Protein backbone atom coordinates (compact mmCIF):
# COMPACT_ATOMS: atom_id res chain seq x y z
CA UNK A 1 0.00 0.00 0.00
CA UNK A 2 1.30 3.46 -0.84
CA UNK A 3 2.14 5.39 2.30
CA UNK A 4 1.33 8.75 0.87
CA UNK A 5 -1.25 9.99 -1.56
CA UNK A 6 -0.68 12.20 -4.54
CA UNK A 7 -3.95 14.11 -4.43
CA UNK A 8 -6.86 12.21 -5.96
CA UNK A 9 -10.29 13.90 -6.02
CA UNK A 10 -11.37 14.67 -2.48
CA UNK A 11 -13.93 12.39 -0.87
CA UNK A 12 -17.19 14.02 0.28
CA UNK A 13 -20.78 13.42 1.44
CA UNK A 14 -22.92 11.66 -1.13
CA UNK A 15 -25.92 13.93 -0.48
CA UNK A 16 -27.23 16.80 1.61
CA UNK A 17 -29.13 14.33 3.81
CA UNK A 18 -25.96 12.34 4.38
CA UNK A 19 -24.20 15.51 5.55
CA UNK A 20 -27.06 16.46 7.87
CA UNK A 21 -27.21 12.97 9.40
CA UNK A 22 -23.44 12.79 9.81
CA UNK A 23 -23.32 16.25 11.40
CA UNK A 24 -26.19 15.37 13.72
CA UNK A 25 -24.38 12.10 14.45
CA UNK A 26 -21.29 14.08 15.37
CA UNK A 27 -23.24 16.49 17.55
CA UNK A 28 -25.45 13.95 19.31
CA UNK A 29 -23.40 11.78 21.61
CA UNK A 30 -22.26 11.22 25.16
CA UNK A 31 -22.37 14.99 25.46
CA UNK A 32 -26.15 14.94 25.19
CA UNK A 33 -26.83 11.69 26.98
CA UNK A 34 -24.22 11.61 29.74
CA UNK A 35 -22.63 15.04 30.06
CA UNK A 36 -25.79 17.14 29.71
CA UNK A 37 -27.86 15.41 32.43
CA UNK A 38 -24.77 15.20 34.64
CA UNK A 39 -23.94 18.90 34.24
CA UNK A 40 -27.60 19.88 34.65
CA UNK A 41 -27.71 17.86 37.87
CA UNK A 42 -24.40 19.24 39.14
CA UNK A 43 -25.30 22.85 38.29
CA UNK A 44 -28.72 23.05 39.83
CA UNK A 45 -31.16 22.10 37.04
CA UNK A 46 -33.33 24.88 35.58
CA UNK A 47 -30.88 27.81 35.63
CA UNK A 48 -28.28 25.74 33.81
CA UNK A 49 -30.75 24.26 31.31
CA UNK A 50 -32.32 27.57 30.32
CA UNK A 51 -28.97 29.33 30.01
CA UNK A 52 -27.76 26.37 27.96
CA UNK A 53 -30.66 26.83 25.52
CA UNK A 54 -29.88 30.55 25.33
CA UNK A 55 -26.23 29.71 24.53
CA UNK A 56 -27.16 27.22 21.81
CA UNK A 57 -29.41 29.65 19.99
CA UNK A 58 -27.47 32.89 20.33
CA UNK A 59 -23.86 31.69 20.51
CA UNK A 60 -23.69 28.07 19.35
CA UNK A 61 -25.79 28.41 16.22
CA UNK A 62 -23.90 31.41 14.78
CA UNK A 63 -20.57 29.72 15.51
CA UNK A 64 -21.85 26.49 13.92
CA UNK A 65 -22.66 28.35 10.73
CA UNK A 66 -19.27 30.10 10.88
CA UNK A 67 -17.40 26.81 11.21
CA UNK A 68 -19.24 25.00 8.43
CA UNK A 69 -18.81 27.90 6.05
CA UNK A 70 -15.06 28.11 6.68
CA UNK A 71 -14.81 24.37 5.92
CA UNK A 72 -17.02 24.44 2.86
CA UNK A 73 -15.12 27.39 1.46
CA UNK A 74 -11.72 25.77 2.06
CA UNK A 75 -12.61 22.19 1.01
CA UNK A 76 -9.65 21.06 3.10
CA UNK A 77 -8.78 20.06 6.67
CA UNK A 78 -9.53 22.70 9.27
CA UNK A 79 -6.20 24.62 9.49
CA UNK A 80 -5.83 24.64 5.71
CA UNK A 81 -9.42 25.91 5.32
CA UNK A 82 -8.77 28.69 7.83
CA UNK A 83 -5.57 29.60 6.02
CA UNK A 84 -7.26 29.78 2.63
CA UNK A 85 -9.91 32.14 3.93
CA UNK A 86 -7.30 34.30 5.69
CA UNK A 87 -5.15 34.44 2.56
CA UNK A 88 -8.04 35.34 0.29
CA UNK A 89 -9.04 38.04 2.77
CA UNK A 90 -5.41 39.31 2.73
CA UNK A 91 -5.00 38.66 6.43
CA UNK A 92 -2.29 36.90 8.40
CA UNK A 93 -2.20 33.16 7.81
CA UNK A 94 -1.39 32.78 11.50
CA UNK A 95 -5.16 32.54 11.93
CA UNK A 96 -4.85 28.92 10.88
CA UNK A 97 -3.63 28.21 14.39
CA UNK A 98 -7.14 28.74 15.69
CA UNK A 99 -8.00 25.59 13.78
CA UNK A 100 -4.79 23.88 14.92
CA UNK A 101 -5.98 24.47 18.48
CA UNK A 102 -9.27 22.86 17.43
CA UNK A 103 -7.52 19.83 15.96
CA UNK A 104 -5.55 19.46 19.18
CA UNK A 105 -8.74 19.70 21.26
CA UNK A 106 -10.51 17.12 19.07
CA UNK A 107 -7.61 14.74 19.57
CA UNK A 108 -7.67 15.24 23.34
CA UNK A 109 -11.44 14.78 23.50
CA UNK A 110 -11.16 11.64 21.33
CA UNK A 111 -8.64 10.18 23.76
CA UNK A 112 -10.98 10.32 26.75
CA UNK A 113 -14.25 9.99 24.83
CA UNK A 114 -13.36 6.43 23.83
CA UNK A 115 -12.75 5.59 27.49
CA UNK A 116 -16.36 6.57 28.21
CA UNK A 117 -17.40 4.69 25.06
CA UNK A 118 -15.72 1.65 26.59
CA UNK A 119 -17.75 2.06 29.79
CA UNK A 120 -20.89 2.04 27.66
CA UNK A 121 -19.75 -1.21 26.02
CA UNK A 122 -19.34 -2.70 29.49
CA UNK A 123 -22.92 -1.82 30.38
CA UNK A 124 -24.22 -3.23 27.10
CA UNK A 125 -22.49 -6.48 28.02
CA UNK A 126 -23.77 -6.34 31.59
CA UNK A 127 -27.41 -5.80 30.59
CA UNK A 128 -27.14 -8.44 27.88
CA UNK A 129 -25.85 -10.95 30.43
CA UNK A 130 -28.61 -9.92 32.81
CA UNK A 131 -31.26 -10.38 30.14
CA UNK A 132 -30.20 -14.01 29.82
CA UNK A 133 -30.25 -14.61 33.56
CA UNK A 134 -33.19 -12.42 34.67
CA UNK A 135 -35.42 -12.70 31.59
CA UNK A 136 -37.64 -10.12 29.93
CA UNK A 137 -40.45 -9.63 32.39
CA UNK A 138 -39.10 -8.58 35.78
CA UNK A 139 -36.78 -5.74 36.77
CA UNK A 140 -33.10 -5.91 35.93
CA UNK A 141 -30.58 -7.58 38.24
CA UNK A 142 -33.15 -9.68 40.10
CA UNK A 143 -31.92 -10.75 43.47
CA UNK A 144 -29.17 -8.10 43.67
CA UNK A 145 -29.23 -5.42 46.35
CA UNK A 146 -29.09 -1.69 45.49
CA UNK A 147 -25.53 -1.60 46.78
CA UNK A 148 -24.56 -4.42 44.47
CA UNK A 149 -26.07 -2.71 41.42
CA UNK A 150 -24.59 0.66 42.25
CA UNK A 151 -21.33 -1.09 42.99
CA UNK A 152 -20.97 -2.27 39.37
CA UNK A 153 -19.71 1.17 38.33
CA UNK A 154 -16.95 1.77 40.91
CA UNK A 155 -15.78 -1.82 40.46
CA UNK A 156 -15.60 -1.38 36.68
CA UNK A 157 -13.77 1.95 36.64
CA UNK A 158 -11.28 0.74 39.23
CA UNK A 159 -10.43 -2.25 37.05
CA UNK A 160 -7.65 -0.86 34.85
CA UNK A 161 -7.35 -3.98 32.71
CA UNK A 162 -11.04 -3.73 31.87
CA UNK A 163 -11.21 0.02 31.18
CA UNK A 164 -8.05 -0.02 29.06
CA UNK A 165 -9.24 -3.01 27.02
CA UNK A 166 -12.66 -1.49 26.41
CA UNK A 167 -11.11 1.86 25.49
CA UNK A 168 -9.00 0.10 22.87
CA UNK A 169 -12.01 -1.84 21.58
CA UNK A 170 -14.00 1.36 21.19
CA UNK A 171 -11.07 3.02 19.39
CA UNK A 172 -10.82 -0.01 17.09
CA UNK A 173 -14.53 0.21 16.18
CA UNK A 174 -14.06 3.93 15.51
CA UNK A 175 -11.05 3.54 13.22
CA UNK A 176 -12.85 0.78 11.34
CA UNK A 177 -15.27 3.40 9.99
CA UNK A 178 -12.89 6.35 9.71
CA UNK A 179 -10.38 4.35 7.68
CA UNK A 180 -13.07 3.60 5.09
CA UNK A 181 -13.45 7.24 4.19
CA UNK A 182 -16.14 9.88 4.24
CA UNK A 183 -18.78 8.44 1.92
CA UNK A 184 -17.74 4.80 2.36
CA UNK A 185 -17.53 4.67 6.16
CA UNK A 186 -18.27 7.81 8.17
CA UNK A 187 -21.53 8.59 6.46
CA UNK A 188 -22.67 4.96 6.50
CA UNK A 189 -22.44 4.72 10.25
CA UNK A 190 -24.55 7.87 10.64
CA UNK A 191 -27.14 7.02 8.00
CA UNK A 192 -27.93 3.67 9.61
CA UNK A 193 -27.40 4.44 13.28
CA UNK A 194 -29.01 7.86 13.68
CA UNK A 195 -32.54 6.79 12.68
CA UNK A 196 -32.23 3.75 14.97
CA UNK A 197 -31.04 6.05 17.72
CA UNK A 198 -34.03 8.39 17.37
CA UNK A 199 -36.50 5.51 17.48
CA UNK A 200 -34.98 4.16 20.68
CA UNK A 201 -34.82 7.57 22.32
CA UNK A 202 -38.42 8.44 21.56
CA UNK A 203 -39.57 4.99 22.69
CA UNK A 204 -37.79 5.24 26.03
CA UNK A 205 -38.97 8.82 26.59
CA UNK A 206 -42.60 7.84 25.98
CA UNK A 207 -42.12 5.04 28.45
CA UNK A 208 -40.82 7.60 30.96
CA UNK A 209 -43.85 9.84 30.33
CA UNK A 210 -46.25 7.13 31.32
CA UNK A 211 -44.26 5.26 33.89
CA UNK A 212 -42.01 7.92 35.43
CA UNK A 213 -42.23 11.14 37.40
CA UNK A 214 -42.65 13.56 34.50
CA UNK A 215 -44.12 16.46 36.49
CA UNK A 216 -41.22 16.50 38.90
CA UNK A 217 -38.80 16.31 35.98
CA UNK A 218 -40.32 19.28 34.18
CA UNK A 219 -40.14 21.29 37.39
CA UNK A 220 -36.56 20.31 37.92
CA UNK A 221 -35.36 21.02 34.39
CA UNK A 222 -37.29 24.16 33.57
CA UNK A 223 -37.80 26.15 36.75
CA UNK A 224 -35.54 29.16 36.46
CA UNK A 225 -33.96 30.30 39.72
CA UNK A 226 -31.87 33.37 38.82
CA UNK A 227 -29.71 33.20 41.94
CA UNK A 228 -28.37 29.84 40.78
CA UNK A 229 -26.95 31.39 37.60
CA UNK A 230 -23.38 32.01 38.82
CA UNK A 231 -20.28 32.57 36.65
CA UNK A 232 -19.12 28.95 36.86
CA UNK A 233 -22.64 27.73 36.01
CA UNK A 234 -22.66 30.00 32.93
CA UNK A 235 -19.24 28.73 31.87
CA UNK A 236 -20.39 25.15 32.34
CA UNK A 237 -23.46 25.84 30.19
CA UNK A 238 -21.61 27.54 27.35
CA UNK A 239 -18.90 24.86 27.40
CA UNK A 240 -21.59 22.20 27.29
CA UNK A 241 -23.26 23.93 24.33
CA UNK A 242 -19.99 23.86 22.37
CA UNK A 243 -19.15 20.31 23.37
CA UNK A 244 -22.59 19.17 22.38
CA UNK A 245 -22.62 20.95 19.02
CA UNK A 246 -19.06 19.72 18.28
CA UNK A 247 -17.82 23.32 18.12
CA UNK A 248 -14.47 24.86 18.99
CA UNK A 249 -12.72 21.61 18.03
CA UNK A 250 -12.75 22.15 14.28
CA UNK A 251 -15.27 19.33 14.03
CA UNK A 252 -17.82 21.23 12.01
CA UNK A 253 -15.11 22.86 9.87
CA UNK A 254 -13.96 19.37 8.93
CA UNK A 255 -17.47 18.07 8.21
CA UNK A 256 -18.31 21.30 6.37
CA UNK A 257 -15.30 20.76 4.11
CA UNK A 258 -17.01 17.71 2.58
CA UNK A 259 -20.18 19.63 1.70
CA UNK A 260 -21.07 20.56 -1.86
CA UNK A 261 -21.60 24.13 -3.05
CA UNK A 262 -25.33 23.61 -3.58
CA UNK A 263 -26.13 23.12 0.11
CA UNK A 264 -27.59 26.05 2.08
CA UNK A 265 -25.47 26.12 5.24
CA UNK A 266 -27.79 28.50 7.08
CA UNK A 267 -30.61 25.98 6.82
CA UNK A 268 -28.50 22.92 7.64
CA UNK A 269 -26.99 24.63 10.70
CA UNK A 270 -30.49 25.31 11.99
CA UNK A 271 -31.49 21.67 11.50
CA UNK A 272 -28.34 20.35 13.20
CA UNK A 273 -28.64 22.64 16.24
CA UNK A 274 -32.35 21.92 16.63
CA UNK A 275 -31.82 18.15 16.47
CA UNK A 276 -28.94 18.26 18.93
CA UNK A 277 -30.80 20.37 21.47
CA UNK A 278 -33.95 18.29 21.13
CA UNK A 279 -31.93 15.17 21.90
CA UNK A 280 -30.29 16.76 24.95
CA UNK A 281 -33.69 17.78 26.30
CA UNK A 282 -35.21 14.41 25.44
CA UNK A 283 -32.30 12.76 27.24
CA UNK A 284 -33.18 14.82 30.31
CA UNK A 285 -36.87 13.98 29.89
CA UNK A 286 -35.96 10.34 29.45
CA UNK A 287 -33.48 9.94 32.32
CA UNK A 288 -34.84 12.09 35.14
CA UNK A 289 -38.40 10.63 35.29
CA UNK A 290 -36.93 7.16 35.70
CA UNK A 291 -34.61 8.50 38.39
CA UNK A 292 -37.32 10.44 40.26
CA UNK A 293 -39.79 7.56 39.98
CA UNK A 294 -37.30 5.37 41.77
CA UNK A 295 -37.08 8.04 44.52
CA UNK A 296 -33.42 8.85 43.77
CA UNK A 297 -31.49 12.13 43.85
CA UNK A 298 -30.81 13.82 40.48
CA UNK A 299 -27.39 15.30 41.22
CA UNK A 300 -25.13 12.35 40.71
CA UNK A 301 -22.78 13.50 37.89
CA UNK A 302 -21.59 10.53 35.87
CA UNK A 303 -23.10 8.30 38.52
CA UNK A 304 -26.50 9.37 37.16
CA UNK A 305 -26.07 7.36 34.00
CA UNK A 306 -23.93 4.55 35.28
CA UNK A 307 -25.29 3.97 38.80
CA UNK A 308 -28.62 5.62 39.38
CA UNK A 309 -30.14 4.56 36.09
CA UNK A 310 -29.20 0.86 36.33
CA UNK A 311 -30.64 0.91 39.82
CA UNK A 312 -33.81 2.49 38.44
CA UNK A 313 -34.01 -0.21 35.75
CA UNK A 314 -34.03 -2.68 38.63
CA UNK A 315 -37.37 -1.30 39.78
CA UNK A 316 -39.00 -1.31 36.35
CA UNK A 317 -40.73 -4.27 34.70
CA UNK A 318 -38.78 -5.25 31.60
CA UNK A 319 -35.79 -3.44 33.09
CA UNK A 320 -33.14 -5.70 31.57
CA UNK A 321 -34.43 -5.21 28.05
CA UNK A 322 -35.02 -1.50 28.54
CA UNK A 323 -31.55 -1.09 30.04
CA UNK A 324 -30.01 -2.99 27.16
CA UNK A 325 -31.88 -0.86 24.60
CA UNK A 326 -30.87 2.27 26.46
CA UNK A 327 -27.16 1.50 26.52
CA UNK A 328 -27.15 0.30 22.89
CA UNK A 329 -28.66 3.67 22.00
CA UNK A 330 -25.96 5.46 23.97
CA UNK A 331 -23.35 3.33 22.22
CA UNK A 332 -24.67 4.28 18.76
CA UNK A 333 -24.61 7.96 19.65
CA UNK A 334 -21.10 7.68 21.08
CA UNK A 335 -19.80 5.95 17.97
CA UNK A 336 -21.06 8.54 15.48
CA UNK A 337 -19.35 11.19 17.63
CA UNK A 338 -16.07 9.37 18.15
CA UNK A 339 -15.93 8.87 14.39
CA UNK A 340 -16.22 12.67 13.98
CA UNK A 341 -13.60 13.28 16.65
CA UNK A 342 -11.15 10.93 14.94
CA UNK A 343 -11.87 12.43 11.54
CA UNK A 344 -10.70 15.91 12.57
CA UNK A 345 -7.03 15.03 13.26
CA UNK A 346 -7.09 12.33 10.56
CA UNK A 347 -8.12 14.85 7.88
CA UNK A 348 -5.35 17.12 9.12
CA UNK A 349 -2.69 14.39 8.90
CA UNK A 350 -3.88 13.50 5.38
CA UNK A 351 -3.76 17.10 4.18
CA UNK A 352 -0.56 18.04 5.95
CA UNK A 353 1.61 14.97 5.38
CA UNK A 354 -0.16 13.44 2.36
CA UNK A 355 -0.50 10.10 4.10
CA UNK A 356 -3.19 7.72 2.97
CA UNK A 357 -6.35 7.68 5.07
CA UNK A 358 -5.76 4.31 6.77
CA UNK A 359 -2.22 5.30 7.76
CA UNK A 360 -3.34 8.72 9.00
CA UNK A 361 -6.21 7.23 11.02
CA UNK A 362 -3.82 4.59 12.37
CA UNK A 363 -1.40 7.24 13.63
CA UNK A 364 -4.19 9.20 15.32
CA UNK A 365 -5.49 6.01 16.92
CA UNK A 366 -2.05 5.07 18.20
CA UNK A 367 -1.50 8.36 20.01
CA UNK A 368 -5.12 8.55 21.21
CA UNK A 369 -4.66 5.08 22.68
CA UNK A 370 -1.57 6.16 24.61
CA UNK A 371 -3.25 9.20 26.19
CA UNK A 372 -6.48 7.23 26.50
CA UNK A 373 -4.75 4.60 28.62
CA UNK A 374 -3.80 7.31 31.13
CA UNK A 375 -7.44 8.42 31.24
CA UNK A 376 -8.66 4.84 31.50
CA UNK A 377 -6.36 4.22 34.46
CA UNK A 378 -7.14 7.55 36.11
CA UNK A 379 -10.27 6.15 37.74
CA UNK A 380 -8.30 3.28 39.24
CA UNK A 381 -4.59 2.75 39.82
CA UNK A 382 -3.66 6.26 38.58
CA UNK A 383 -6.31 8.02 40.67
CA UNK A 384 -3.60 9.60 42.83
CA UNK A 385 -2.22 11.51 39.82
CA UNK A 386 -3.72 15.01 39.52
CA UNK A 387 -1.80 16.57 36.60
CA UNK A 388 -3.04 20.15 37.12
CA UNK A 389 -4.07 19.71 40.73
CA UNK A 390 -2.05 22.79 41.77
CA UNK A 391 -4.73 24.97 40.12
CA UNK A 392 -8.00 25.20 42.08
CA UNK A 393 -10.01 24.69 38.88
CA UNK A 394 -8.48 21.22 38.49
CA UNK A 395 -8.03 20.37 42.14
CA UNK A 396 -8.43 16.70 42.95
CA UNK A 397 -9.01 15.78 39.30
CA UNK A 398 -7.42 12.77 37.65
CA UNK A 399 -6.31 12.70 34.01
CA UNK A 400 -9.78 12.09 32.55
CA UNK A 401 -11.55 14.85 34.47
CA UNK A 402 -8.66 17.24 33.90
CA UNK A 403 -8.78 16.73 30.13
CA UNK A 404 -12.58 17.05 30.09
CA UNK A 405 -12.51 20.28 32.12
CA UNK A 406 -9.53 21.71 30.25
CA UNK A 407 -11.18 21.23 26.85
CA UNK A 408 -14.81 21.86 27.84
CA UNK A 409 -14.17 24.97 29.90
CA UNK A 410 -11.09 26.46 28.23
CA UNK A 411 -10.01 25.33 24.76
CA UNK A 412 -13.50 24.88 23.25
CA UNK A 413 -14.86 28.29 24.31
CA UNK A 414 -11.56 29.96 23.35
CA UNK A 415 -11.57 28.22 19.94
CA UNK A 416 -15.18 29.30 19.34
CA UNK A 417 -14.41 32.86 20.49
CA UNK A 418 -11.51 33.18 18.04
CA UNK A 419 -13.60 31.65 15.25
CA UNK A 420 -16.35 34.22 15.75
CA UNK A 421 -13.79 37.04 15.76
CA UNK A 422 -12.26 35.67 12.56
CA UNK A 423 -15.54 35.34 10.71
CA UNK A 424 -17.03 38.54 12.13
CA UNK A 425 -14.05 40.89 11.85
CA UNK A 426 -11.11 39.41 9.99
CA UNK A 427 -12.37 37.46 7.00
CA UNK A 428 -13.54 39.30 3.90
CA UNK A 429 -17.20 40.14 4.35
CA UNK A 430 -18.22 39.37 0.77
CA UNK A 431 -16.50 36.04 0.86
CA UNK A 432 -18.23 35.05 4.10
CA UNK A 433 -21.60 36.29 2.91
CA UNK A 434 -21.37 34.29 -0.30
CA UNK A 435 -21.19 31.09 1.77
CA UNK A 436 -23.68 31.61 4.58
CA UNK A 437 -26.96 31.06 2.71
CA UNK A 438 -28.87 33.63 4.77
CA UNK A 439 -31.00 36.40 3.36
CA UNK A 440 -32.40 39.72 4.59
CA UNK A 441 -33.08 40.19 8.29
CA UNK A 442 -31.67 36.82 9.27
CA UNK A 443 -28.39 37.72 7.65
CA UNK A 444 -28.16 40.98 9.59
CA UNK A 445 -29.08 39.24 12.82
CA UNK A 446 -26.43 36.58 12.25
CA UNK A 447 -23.83 39.29 11.55
CA UNK A 448 -24.77 41.03 14.78
CA UNK A 449 -24.42 37.77 16.69
CA UNK A 450 -20.99 36.80 15.27
CA UNK A 451 -19.53 40.29 15.37
CA UNK A 452 -20.83 41.44 18.73
CA UNK A 453 -22.79 39.08 20.90
CA UNK A 454 -20.59 35.96 20.53
CA UNK A 455 -17.22 37.62 21.24
CA UNK A 456 -18.49 39.84 24.06
CA UNK A 457 -20.57 37.14 25.72
CA UNK A 458 -17.79 34.57 25.42
CA UNK A 459 -15.13 36.86 26.87
CA UNK A 460 -17.47 37.79 29.73
CA UNK A 461 -18.44 34.19 30.44
CA UNK A 462 -14.82 33.01 30.32
CA UNK A 463 -13.84 35.73 32.80
CA UNK A 464 -16.67 35.21 35.27
CA UNK A 465 -16.40 31.46 34.91
CA UNK A 466 -12.66 30.93 35.13
CA UNK A 467 -11.61 33.49 37.71
CA UNK A 468 -13.73 32.22 40.58
CA UNK A 469 -12.54 28.69 39.82
CA UNK A 470 -8.91 29.77 39.55
CA UNK A 471 -9.18 31.66 42.80
CA UNK A 472 -10.93 28.67 44.29
CA UNK A 473 -14.14 30.51 45.15
N1 LIG B 1 -20.79 16.52 20.24
C1 LIG B 1 -20.34 15.27 20.80
C2 LIG B 1 -21.20 14.93 22.00
O1 LIG B 1 -22.04 15.72 22.38
O2 LIG B 1 -21.00 13.86 22.54
C3 LIG B 1 -18.88 15.32 21.16
C4 LIG B 1 -18.03 15.79 20.04
C5 LIG B 1 -18.02 15.09 18.83
C6 LIG B 1 -17.32 16.94 20.15
C7 LIG B 1 -17.28 15.54 17.76
C8 LIG B 1 -16.56 17.40 19.09
C9 LIG B 1 -16.57 16.70 17.88
F1 LIG B 1 -15.86 17.12 16.86
TrEMBL record:
Coiled-coil portions: none
Q: Does the keyword Oxidoreductase apply?
A: no
Q: Name one Pfam family in it.
A: SNF
Annotated Gene Ontology cellular component terms: membrane
- What are the subcellular locations of this protein? Membrane
Q: Which InterPro entries match?
A: Na/ntran_symport (IPR000175), SNS_sf (IPR037272), YocR/YhdH-like (IPR047218)
Which UniProt keyword terms apply here?
Membrane, Transmembrane, Transmembrane helix, Transport
Its main localization is: membrane
Membrane-spanning ranges: 18-38, 44-65, 98-124, 152-179, 191-213, 233-258, 279-298, 318-342, 363-386, 406-427, 448-471
Has keyword Lipid biosynthesis? no
Membrane topology qualifier: Multi-pass membrane protein
What NCBIfam families does the record tag this protein with?
Answer: Na_transp (NF037979)
User: What's the protein name?
Assistant: Sodium-dependent transporter
Amino acid sequence: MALTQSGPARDGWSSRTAFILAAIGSAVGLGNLVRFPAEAGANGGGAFVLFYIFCVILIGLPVLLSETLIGRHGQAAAPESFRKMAEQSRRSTAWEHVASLGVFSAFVVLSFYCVLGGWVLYYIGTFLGDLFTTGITGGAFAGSSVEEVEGIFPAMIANGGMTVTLDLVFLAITIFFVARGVSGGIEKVAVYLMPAFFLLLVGITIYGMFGGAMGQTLDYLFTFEPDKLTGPVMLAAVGQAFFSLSLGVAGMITYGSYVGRNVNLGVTSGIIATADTTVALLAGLCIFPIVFAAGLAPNGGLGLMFQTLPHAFQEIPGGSLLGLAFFIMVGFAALTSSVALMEVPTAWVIDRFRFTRPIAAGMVTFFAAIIGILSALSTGSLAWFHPLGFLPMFEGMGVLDTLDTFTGKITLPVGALLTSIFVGWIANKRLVDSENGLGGGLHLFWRFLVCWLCPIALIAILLVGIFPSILGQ
